[in-house]
Amino acid sequence: MTTITVIGKHGCHLCPTALGIVEEVVAGLPDEIGDDIEIVERSIEDDLVLYDLWWEKIPVVLIDDEVHAHWRVSPDKLRQRLENR
Hints:
This is Thioredoxin family protein. By secondary structure, the chain is an alpha+beta fold. The chain has a domain at 11-36 and 49-71. The chain contains four helices and four strands; from the N terminus they run βααβαββα. It has helices spanning 15-28, 31-34, 48-54, 75-83; strands spanning 2-8, 37-43, 60-63, 66-70. A four-stranded mixed sheet has the order 2-1-3-4, with helices on both faces. A hairpin with a 2-residue loop joins β3 (60-63) and β4 (66-70). The longest helix has 14 residues, at 15-28. The mean pLDDT is 97.
């Protein structure tokens, strides 16, 4: 199982866009890839460790706890990374 974590906060204008891109890319993947992906939302407002790590870079997208992108998410780069896993 691959976990994609989208880290953001309430009121972040880029966060819904990043989450939407992640959801759209995963939905467009072949079933054998997309069915094995879990999308998790986390907020820096709920976790001081996340806040300390990421407050300047939200939204942040992690794939299996490794940084994939921050601020802006490229659908093409995300799709390519997920297809090549």
